[in-house]
Structure formats: structure tokens, C-alpha cells
């Protein structure tokens, strides 16, 4: 028998690594149409490699009428001409791999575009061989929709099709008909889609709205949500009890997983927006589920040390054995972190995200601290904002282009970008921040470098301390190495609680200084503790 206790624990790349989300429309344009593309991303791979991330996840790049900006897929095995060609994708993949970067695609299984050949066939006749690939039902007795379900973007989740006299279901836009995962042929076709990309060499997928894909048998009405208020958006009128998170979804997740595992070390990140206990089930019930059920708790959590400490403790305690944590602070669907917290606390959020236990996902543009962007009414694109205007649901402000330098259009494009740049792009851009040691970008780089060189941060254990009302404090350890993280969540100088200030300073969010038992306003510290 070999004694393996002394050999280093095998760590998957996605456990120790950091994921960076690219919103392709807004990363880098290469052909002067004002919209980012694959060749643009390829041009910026050196930037990403130097930043210190390990994997990029690309929001959808497949052929799409763009009713929901790519989350309405018209062909799962192609590339939209806006973004390039399959050849351009292969080049990007190869170039990324040459730099040691993994590439994740966005797999959208809940719905296709209404322009997908499958749906066009399905809606052509009740006898279509693909009729059952989507969810068709007869009208209710009064001619209205088959049940009370509401689309996540407001309005009924059903659209009547005159030609065949039935309604089809869509959890999002009517241009995004829901696929029927109870149909074995459709399932097989989707598994072939996964194989198509895995065969090409992609390293995994982020799975869009995974918790939506199975619906309750019989499609019963959803119950009314007693806490609904109009400013929440119409979807919250009902509790999505029967339309989401059904037991069958775990079967499907397990099938995705075994397919991915048959290709070796590939990663599945499942988008799950559910309470912690439900989210945990997506790690798998009887069989493994997705590797990482995307943990969105930080994107909306109150910025309060006590609240966050409890949230971290609960999440850690709820993880199943072997379940690897993950964190995200912003995305193309949520407000930018600097818009939500202001620039000073966005630096604290950066330190938090990159020192918590578990795989972090950064959202493009947060590393230069893009804040709130005002979108003039005539430039609104997001269907969510267009359908329920003025209540703050719009996602365009988080989807604006990256400013690379102070040349026209921020070096993003030779033409006017599809969404406006942030107001301060002439001074807030990658080129400026690269040369400023105190910039947000330099902070992100320092944190990413530290995370890479300190196993305590990338794979170590976490110990949450009591801290105080305004100070979040925790230790990360691996072997004999112990790091203390101290985050001042307020704009006021704070005395460190007893026993927490000792140690050698490794990094402050405010630049170098001797440790003195205090946290300056909006300061975060990483200290090395003695062994
Ligand atoms: C996910 C995507 C979002 C999209 C929705 C419908 O939540 O992140 O952008 O609108 O799914 O596909
Ligand atoms: Mg372009």
C-alpha cells in the first residue's frame, strides 16, 4: 500500500482558478461595426493573461436574432456573423489555450430562439415531428393561456399561435420558446450540441437558467406571492413553484455532468438563483450534478459585516461533502459593483471576492471600476427595460463597452459603440490604470497575483472571525501558511478588534503602510500571520 497522505491533494484547475466573464458585444470590436467580436477578444488575450485570470466564460456567441442579445439561440452549433465564424472561434480557442487560459461557453438549454429551425418546424403543424420539442398546450376553456405563469420579463409566459391554434410556453420573451426536456429526441440533440463544442476543445460551459429547464407535470398554476410589490417587476407576482426547480432537473444536471466528465477535466457552472438549501442540491443528489452551482448571494447582499459573516457561515455549512464553493459580485444581469457600492467599497469587494474560499468569477470592466452608466432613452436595448421601463430592471448599464485607452470610442471600436461608454472613460480606461499603481486595475492584478502564489487563498480553508459591526475578518490557511483578511466596510476609520491586527502586511487596498492596529476608511488588509 502506498501512503498518499503526504502527497499534495489533486486540485482541479477550476478550483484554484479564477473565471473572467466576457460579454462579447462589449469587450473589443475588431471590424468597426461598434459591436465586440471574437477577433477582438483574441487581440486582448495578452491583457487577460497578464491580468492573472485562468478561464474566460463567453456570454452567447451563437447565431441569434438578438431579441435577448444572444440568449435567444437560432443555431447551437454556429457563430453569429456579428461575432465571427467557426474559424475565428477555433483561432480564439487555440490562442487562449496557448496562453494557458481555459474557455467556457454559455449553453442555453431552457429555450431557443423562435427562429431556430427546430421551433420553425415545431410551429409549422401539430403533426410536426418536432412539435413535442417545445411546450404546446390548448387554450384554457375561456380561450386564454393554459395556466397563470408569468414570463420573467413580465406578461404571460404563453403566446398563442394562430396557425395551429395552440399556445407555446416561454419563460422569457415570446421570441424564446421553452424547450421540452421531457422529450428524449430533443435531449439527444442537445447532448450532441455539447459534444460538438467539447470535441472542438472547449473547457466547459456556464449553463443558462439551469433551474428553469424542468417544469411540473401537468403545468399547474403557480401560487400568488403575498409579498409582491409592483417595483419588483411582474414576474414576482407569483411564486415559481411549478415552473422552476423541479426534481427532474437533477436528473438532467447529472446527465450533463456525466457527458462532461467523459471528456476529462471539463467544468459545468450552473446558473441557479434559489435559496441556499435548494442551490446545494445542484451539486448533485444521488449522482454528481454541476461542478459549481453559481452562487449569486453577493450580488444583492446588504453591505453589512454582520449580514455577510452569517451568509458566509451558512453557505459554508450548507456545502455538501466535496462541494467546492464559488462567488460572484456582478454580471451582465446585475448592477455593476462600483455602481452599487461606490468606488471606495468596490475595492473592498475586489479584495473580498479574491480572498474568499471558492472559485471567483470576475465580470469584465469591474477591474477598471466602471460605475453607473446613464443610458439615454433612445439608446435602451435591453428587452427587460423596454417591457417594464423605469423601475430599475434594465441591464444595459452593466453591459457597456470596455474603454481600453483615451483614443476615440475608448479604443473599443472605430465606430460609435452599440451602447455608450461610461462618462469618465477618458480617465477611466485600461491604459491609464495600467500605469497607475493605485488604480483599481493594479489592485485587481495584485490580488490575482497573490491568489496565484498563495495556496492559502486559492485552495486553503477559511475561518470566519467575530469581527465587528463594520469589520469583516477571516483567516485563510494552507499548510503552515496563514493569512488574515480585514475589511472595513465603512468610510470611517476603525480600531481593529483585539488580537486581529498583528501580522505582516502583504497588501492594503490603499497602498503600502505599516500596520498600526487601525483600518483606515474603506481599507482592506491582508496580513501574514506567524506560524
Ligand atoms: C440568464 C441570462 C440572462 C438572460 C436569461 C434568459 O439569466 O444571464 O441574460 O436574459 O437567462 O436567457
Ligand atoms: Mg465587430
From TrEMBL:
InterPro entries: GH, GH13_cat_dom, O16G_dom_2
SUPFAM superfamilies (UniProt xref): (Trans)glycosidases, Glycosyl hydrolase domain
Glycosyl hydrolase family 13 catalytic domain mapped to chain residues: 21-399
Keyword set includes Cytoplasm: no
Keyword list, A-Z: Glycosidase, Hydrolase
Pfam families noted in UniProt: Alpha-amylase
Molecular functions (GO terms): alpha-amylase activity
Biological processes per GO annotation: oligosaccharide catabolic process
PANTHER family: ALPHA-AMYLASE FAMILY MEMBER, NEUTRAL AND BASIC AMINO ACID TRANSPORT PROTEIN RBAT
Family statement drawn from the similarity comment of this UniProt entry: Belongs to the glycosyl hydrolase 13 family.
Name used for this protein in its record: DUF3459 domain-containing protein
Organism the protein comes from: Sphingomonas cremea
Lineage: Bacteria, Pseudomonadati, Pseudomonadota, Alphaproteobacteria, Sphingomonadales
Amino acid at each position: 500500500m502506498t501512503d498518499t497522505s503526504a502527497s499534495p491533494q489533486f486540485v482541479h484547475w477550476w478550483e484554484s482558478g479564477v473565471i473572467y466573464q466576457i460579454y462579447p458585444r462589449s469587450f473589443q470590436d475588431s471590424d468597426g461595426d461598434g459591436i465586440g467580436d471574437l477577433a477582438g477578444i483574441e487581440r486582448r488575450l495578452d491583457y487577460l493573461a497578464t491580468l492573472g485570470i485562468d478561464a474566460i466564460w463567453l456570454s452567447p456567441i451563437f447565431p441569434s436574432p438578438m431579441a435577448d442579445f444572444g440568449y435567444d439561440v437560432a443555431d447551437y452549433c454556429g457563430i453569429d456573423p456579428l461575432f465571427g465564424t467557426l474559424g475565428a472561434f477555433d483561432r480564439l480557442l487555440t490562442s487562449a489555450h496557448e496562453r494557458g487560459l481555459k474557455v467556457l461557453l454559455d449553453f442555453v438549454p431552457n429555450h431557443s430562439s423562435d427562429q431556430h429551425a427546430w421551433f420553425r418546424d415545431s410551429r409549422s403543424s401539430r403533426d410536426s415531428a418536432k412539435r413535442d420539442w417545445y411546450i404546446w398546450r390548448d387554450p384554457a376553456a375561456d380561450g386564454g393561456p393554459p395556466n397563470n405563469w408569468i414570463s420573467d420579463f413580465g406578461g404571460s409566459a404563453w403566446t398563442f399561435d394562430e396557425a395551429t391554434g395552440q399556445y407555446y410556453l416561454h419563460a422569457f420573451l415570446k421570441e424564446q420558446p421553452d424547450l421540452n426536456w421531457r422529450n428524449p429526441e430533443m435531449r439527444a440533440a442537445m447532448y450532441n450540441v455539447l459534444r460538438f463544442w467539447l470535441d472542438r476543445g472547449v473547457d466547459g460551459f456556464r449553463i443558462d437558467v439551469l433551474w428553469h429547464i424542468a417544469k411540473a407535470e401537468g403545468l399547474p398554476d403557480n401560487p400568488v406571492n403575498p409579498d409582491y410589490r409592483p417595483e419588483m417587476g411582474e414576474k414576482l407576482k407569483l411564486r415559481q413553484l411549478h415552473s422552476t426547480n423541479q426534481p427532474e432537473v437533477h436528473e438532467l444536471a447529472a446527465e450533463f455532468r456525466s457527458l462532461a466528465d467523459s471528456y476529462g477535466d471539463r467544468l459545468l457552472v450552473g446558473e441557479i438563483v434559489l435559496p441556499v438549501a435548494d442551490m446545494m442540491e445542484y451539486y448533485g443528489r444521488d449522482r454528481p450534478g454541476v461542478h459549481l452551482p453559481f452562487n449569486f448571494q453577493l450580488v444583492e447582499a446588504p453591505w453589512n459585516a454582520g449580514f455577510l459573516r452569517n451568509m458566509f457561515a451558512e453557505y459554508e455549512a450548507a456545502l455538501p461533502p466535496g462541494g467546492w464553493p464559488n462567488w460572484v459580485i456582478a454580471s451582465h444581469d446585475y448592477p455593476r459593483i462600483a455602481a452599487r457600492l461606490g468606488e471606495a467599497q468596490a475595492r473592498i469587494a475586489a479584495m473580498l471576492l479574491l480572498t474568499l474560499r471558492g472559485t471567483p468569477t470576475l465580470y469584465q470592466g469591474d477591474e477598471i471600476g466602471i460605475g453607473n452608466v446613464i443610458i439615454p432613452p433612445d439608446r435602451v436595448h435591453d428587452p427587460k427595460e423596454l417591457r417594464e421601463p423605469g423601475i430599475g430592471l434594465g441591464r444595459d448599464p452593466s453591459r457597456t463597452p470596455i474603454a481600453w485607452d483615451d483614443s476615440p470610442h475608448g479604443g473599443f471600436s472605430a465606430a460609435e459603440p452599440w451602447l455608450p461608454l461610461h462618462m469618465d472613460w477618458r480617465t477611466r480606461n485600461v491604459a491609464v490604470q495600467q500605469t497607475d499603481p493605485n488604480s483599481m486595475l493594479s489592485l485587481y492584478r495584485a490580488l490575482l497575483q497573490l491568489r496565484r502564489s498563495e495556496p492559502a487563498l486559492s485552495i486553503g480553508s477559511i475561518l470566519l472571525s467575530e469581527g465587528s459591526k463594520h469589520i469583516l475578518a477571516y483567516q485563510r490557511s494552507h499548510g503552515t501558511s496563514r493569512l488574515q483578511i480585514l475589511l472595513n466596510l465603512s468610510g470611517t476609520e476603525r480600531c481593529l478588534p483585539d488580537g486581529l491586527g498583528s501580522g505582516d502586511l502583504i497588501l492594503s487596498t490603499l497602498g503600502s503602510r505599516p500596520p498600526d492596529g487601525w483600518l483606515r476608511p474603506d481599507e482592506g488588509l491582508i496580513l501574514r500571520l506567524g506560524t
